[in-house]
Fold this protein.
Amino acid sequence: MHGLTAAHKTLVFGTKLRVTNPDTDRSVNVVVNDRGPFIPGRDLDLSYGAAKAIGLSEKGVGRVKIDYLGRDMRYVKRIAYQPALSDGPPVPVTIQVGSFSEKSRAMRMKKGLAINYDDVYVTRVMANRKVFFRVKVGNFKNRNDARAVAEKLADEGYDTLITLRK
């Protein structure tokens, strides 16, 4: 909340931006670390700390100038595979991108992923007597078919796990 971060619908996680309020001529550097906003006509959500730095915290909404500053590559993730997928015949798989104990968090991630990806869905599972909501992308014939999509997701900053489709 007080950090210098932002949410954007399509920019990859780790994108660095300079955001300037033209009314005050104040600027702040932020890092994209979330999806959103999910309000038509809006492209960027600033954290409270970033909005306060440029004089938008009271107003809440305003026009800004955005300059691209590069990318923090620490946001790029690796692709993990469920151990059972390492050998044997091809099996149907999907890409798990998140697992949450709160359904609302899973639905928020699903909404963000659905902007750029088809076949995004949430499954409900029990593990260790707890309920989890897993966000998944796609249904693929085998792990090689899933790899290209998983690489794109990982480059955008999502944790990915290629896992059996159930």
Summary: The chain has a mean pLDDT of 91. The first helix runs from residue 48 to 53. The beta strands are 5-8, 15-21, 26-34, 44-46, 65-71, 79-81, 93-100, 120-127, 130-140, 160-164.
